[in-house]
Amino acid sequence: MVHQYKLNDFNIVLDTCSGSVHVVDEVAYDIIDMYEKCSEEEIVKAILEKYKDREDVTEEDVKLCIGDVGQLKEAGKLFTPDNYEDMAGTFKERSGDVVKALCLHVAHTCNLNCSYCFASQGKYHGDRALMSFEVGKRALDFLMEHSGTRTNLEVDFFGGEPLMNWDVVKQLVNYARSVEKEHKKNFRFTLTTNGMLIDDDVIEFANKEMSNVVLSLDGRKEIHDRLRVDYAGNGSYEKIVPKFRKLVDSRGGKNYYMRGTFTHANPDFTKDVFHMADLGFTELSMEPVVCAPGDPAGLTPEDIEIVKEQYEILAKDMLRRTAEGKPITFYHYMLDLKSGPCIYKRISGCGSGTEYMAVTPWGDLYPCHQFVGEESYKLGDIWNGVTNTELREEFRSCNAYAREDCKDCWAKLYCSGGCAANAFHASGTIRGIYKPGCELFKKRIECAIMMRAAETAMGK
Amino acid sequence: MTRITTLETKNLCESAKNGGCGECQTSCQSACKTSCGVANQKCENAEE
């Protein structure tokens, strides 16, 4: 499938099935648009008519360009046929029942009371609970037992607020480190925290052991403190920003993300991204809120249009910063065209329910953290493994080609059909789609690819 | 080609042959946690 768009004075042509990206001038842009629909004669006529005031657009030149387009097609870089659908269903079967990543809900409780929390203040619509070391250890053993030949195993300490169960987190990391070599595994830990309980011990341990830390900050103080409040209603910004600063400063270049959520209150979220940059943070992620329909924090259709414009503003500003030698990273714009994922990954998606699962404090398994609390989505537990095999098969069969709505979408090999949880919450089925999410995703990808085109032009 | 510049990209059709090692990061795990996107993951296949 070919997708063409114009952004920031770039004319971009994506050949989605080969992954090729072409930056073209407007004449080539029009020729490519007509190439599969018109004869050479018709194209020449239409182009010469449209550009009759341009001296550089001659019949010979147009024919040359048509020839170039033909060469790209011949080389498998343009109009590449989509031959993936038949193999799409088999890709996830290749992995068998391998599990390679767990989201450990070490604390179903939180010291903040953010009204927009998808996990209902960390409780996931259930009781407050902390994971014991024994449950966590069994979860890590379950992961090693079910990881087949995979070397890299990912474990995210999540909540609620995982620092409310910090001693268990440390014990679990130490346990994993003590056994990973004999099992020929490499644990990669992530800590996702609101920052309230960060102290020197957390900083030292996290910076030694966590491959990644995700630090929740919504940007400007007035935005952050509007929703990220403690149980007395006090904003958390002043408390956490110095702690985040100290943690990041002593991280020694290891991965981290400042991760914010934007809502109906701040569809102009780039101001929050730039605020985080002004604070000296460079690795940034800002996500649209995920909430129930009717929630006042939810993004309206008008907000979605604003957000799309904001993504363009962000992309252009990031290019400016790069040109000035002060780049920042935005998670969704990290698109590596050369070393990105293979077609298997692009079709298979995030792996929720098969390779990736969430573990509750009491050891139940769910397809991902966003399904925890949905009883009918319980897969099994860490002692007996996946017992709801029908549900696992439902997730296994979900891929970029499984959704009717994605059939004609150019972006499906970039999103692999989108987030199953978002689809479920929006449509009642994991085979549905979350339309506003699709719109934003497509805009982000267009921006990210435009940025690669601009960086190439800059020689970066 | 005077009017077309092709950026260097991974050949997806080729990657069907050697891809699928499964060592790359789980996309949701890395930072977003609320919206899936696989395109920004790094390939970790030593054989690719």
Give an account of the 3D structure.
The complex is a heterodimer of chains A (460) and B (48). Chain A has 16 helices and 15 strands. In chain A, the strands form two sheets. In chain A, strands 4, 5, 6, 7, 8, 9, 10, 11, 12, 13, 14 and 15 form a twelve-stranded mixed beta sheet that branches. Chain A has 460 residues and is an alpha/beta fold. The mean pLDDT of chain A is 95. In chain A, strand 2 and strand 3 form a beta hairpin. Chain B is α+β, with helices and mostly antiparallel strands and 48 residues long. Chain B is 23% helix and 6% strand. The radius of gyration of chain B is 14 Å and the shape is flat. The termini of chain B are far apart. The chains are: A alpha/beta (460), B alpha+beta (48). Chains A and B meet through strand 3, helix 3, helix 4, strand 6 and strand 7 of A and strand 1, helix 1 and helix 2 of B.
| Tally of alpha and pi helices of chain A | 16
- Indicate the proportion of strand residues of chain B: 5-15%
How would a textbook summarize the main sheet of chain B?
Answer: none
Rough shape of chain B? flat
Q: Low-confidence stretches of chain A at least 5 residues in length (pLDDT < 50)?
A: none
Question: Cα-atom Rg of chain A, whole angstroms?
Answer: 24 Å
What's the helix count of chain B?
Answer: 2
Secondary-structure element string of chain B: EHH
Distance between the termini of chain A: 28 Å
Shape descriptor of chain A: globular
Largest β sheet strand count, sense and barrel closure of chain A:
12 strands, mixed
Defining key terms:
heterodimer; A: alpha/beta; globular; B: 48 residues; alpha+beta; 2 helices
